[in-house]
Design brief:
There is one protein chain. It is built from four helices and eight strands. The protein is α+β, with helices and mostly antiparallel strands and 191 residues long. The strands form two sheets. A six-stranded mixed beta sheet has the order 4-3-2-1-6-5. Strands 7-8 form a two-stranded antiparallel ribbon.
Length: 191
């Protein structure tokens, strides 16, 4: 009986180690596809009928990256016959690009006409790489409720002097000898 159990364990371990090599441990984001485009939802333009819309534009769903940071979701983009790319203002705001507050979120904006923004459309990869200057990006904040945590007037305040110190100290007794060891890290910010 012991012999059979030993054989099973030996046979099981190589199979398990082989299966471990096949696992994909990369944390690549899986994009989600936006809602489909039809005449009954918010993704269609109001003034153009459906036939004209599809004749003048090609609908694309692209992976958009801003300054080499890829978004997790696919983004709806229109391409006109002359090669210009259009994206919704609300989508650009979601991607942290500063937009004029008077522009409606549902309005299509021509990326070619945005000053200061450089882009590269990679047709084979179905991706759009945007290079946006930092002054054209909205301040980054994280909140579980989807609300802005930091009020804008706090962001305009001058920074304070600050210091952060992290240290570790260890004591070891070996052969009646006391040994101390440690490490320290510090960051100092001067306004």
């Amino acid at each position: 009986m012991k012999y059979i159990i030993g054989v099973l364990c030996v046979a099981y371990l190589p199979a398990y180690s082989f299966a471990e090599q096949l696992q994909d441990n990369t944390n690549t984001p899986i994009p989600s596809v936006p809602k489909s485009i039809d005449s009954n939802n918010k993704y269609t333009q109001g003034n153009i009928n459906e036939e004209e819309q599809y004749l003048n534009f090609t609908q694309l769903f692209l992976v958009v990256s801003i300054n080499s940071n890829a978004a997790e979701d696919l983004v709806a983009v229109k391409q006109s016959k002359d090669g210009k790319l259009y994206i919704r203002s609300g989508t650009l705001k979601t991607l942290r690009v500063k937009m004029d507050e008077h522009v409606a979120d549902s309005q299509w904006v021509c990326i070619n006409e945005l000053k200061g923004i450089q882009f590269k459309y990679l047709e084979n990869e179905q991706s759009l790489n945007l290079q946006v200057p930092s002054n054209m990006l909205a301040d980054y904040s994280v909140d579980l409720n989807g609300q802005q945590l930091t009020s804008p007037h706090l962001l305009k305040m001058k920074p304070l002097n600050a210091a952060i110190l992290n240290y570790s100290l260890y004591h070891t007794v070996t052969n009646d000898e006391n040994v101390f060891s440690g490490s320290a890290e510090g960051i100092f910010n001067s306004a």
